[in-house]
Amino acid sequence: MGPIQTGIFLSGAAKGGFDRIVVAEVDEKIKEAVNSSGGKISINIAGADGIYRETIPNIEILNPADKDDLEKLVEAAVDAEEFATALPNVDIFRHVAPWMRRAFEKKPEATRYIYAAENNNHAAEILTEAVGGNFPNTHFLNTVVGKMSGVVSSAEAAQDNLALLAPGADRGHLVEEFNTIYISSAPGVNAIKTKYLFPKTDLFPFEEAKLYGHNAIHFLLGMLGKIDGFEFMSQLRGNEKLIPFARSAFIDECGTALCKKWKGADSLFTIEGFRNYVEDLLVRMTNPFLKDAISRITRDLPRKLSWDDRSVGTMRLVVSQGIKPDKISSGAALAAVELFSNDSKAVRAGFEKLWPQPWTDEHETVLTHIFEKAGI
């Protein structure tokens, strides 16, 4: 049970009027803490002016690794109207799909909506395949989660006067106030109860805006901040060098490319719409109450330098729209030097292993921009 699950789906379900919210959780300590609290959890919300707490009621935690709990979980899922998955990665679907299928087979015609929030553009399709079966009114929906969040330890919670998930829990959740979550569309989806979820007929443009806009600039600022010795994103607020640089990369490179590619898809993909998106995000990314660690943003460099991800994938998008990735390539260059060294042969060899083959002109173009920005 992570902060995306609590800060979006549990909070949204409670506000939507669900009087029973069942959570599958394998951590026995969290299960015991929450169930012993009377089924209430607390989350910390970082607003523009400070941190406040929200209590979410009607929570029941069941451990699918426990035989008795698993049967209760299946029975709860039989009559459930809405589901949300927010697992660390889609590989874990193989552990949840069997009990979901067992439940669905008991009422195969029931209408259900399942929100897949694994930060994978095809999570819903992958979960659909993993569950299998013939459930004509069961709708697996992708999500675009632009909400920033994190886990705080009990020590950090005590130090910063933050609430734990429940008395006796070893962690708390700190989430930003932002709550506009896009989901893919399906028949009857406008009648869902969970709050904060907004259906889009075509989700793909918004997925690209999230990955090649929001995520790309978040990572770029993180890498630039790391080089300058900063620890938290909030320390970059008002920085007269880094914020204007990031704004230009966001608007002139990512934004221009996205607006050109997705012209007409939505008001977001207009000059005014995208500029408003940029200004809002630059404020949110540097929220002093979110305590967003630069080390978190810049971890797992192989994934973030992969062909379709936030750094290299954004460069490819920008180039494909006839724009030079002058500023956005800075993040990839800094990350490449950190990961592979500042030797051009080592960097090339590293990317040859990391990127899909065969090597094409597009590969060479992207690498040339990285070399140019890294000065190697």
The largest sheet, given as strand count, sense and whether it forms a barrel, is: 5 strands, mixed
Q: Uncertain regions: pLDDT < 50 for 5+ in a row? A: none
Helix content, binned percent: 40-55%
**Number of helices in the DSSP assignment:** 15
Average pLDDT taken over every residue? 98
Number of domains: 2
Cα-atom Rg, whole angstroms? 22 Å
- CATH topology title of the largest domain: Rossmann fold
- The CA-CA distance between the termini, in Å, is 44 Å
Instruction: Please state the structural category.
Output: alpha/beta
How is this structure best described in words?
There is one protein chain. The chain contains 15 helices and eleven strands. By secondary structure, it is an alpha/beta fold. The protein has two domains: 3-201, Rossmann fold, CATH 3.40.50; 205-374, N-(1-d-carboxylethyl)-l-norvaline Dehydrogenase, domain 2 (Orthogonal Bundle), CATH 1.10.1040. Strand 5, helix 4 and strand 6 (112-116) form a beta-alpha-beta unit. Helix 3 (67-79) packs across helix 4 (93-106), helix 4 crosses helix 5 (123-131) and helix 7 packs antiparallel against helix 8 (242-261). It is globular, with a radius of gyration of 22 Å. The protein starts with a helix and ends with a helix.
Short summary:
By secondary structure, the protein is α/β, with parallel strands linked by helices. It has 2 domains: 3-201, Rossmann fold (3-Layer(aba) Sandwich), CATH 3.40.50; 205-374, N-(1-d-carboxylethyl)-l-norvaline Dehydrogenase, domain 2, CATH 1.10.1040. Helix content is 47%, strand content 15%.
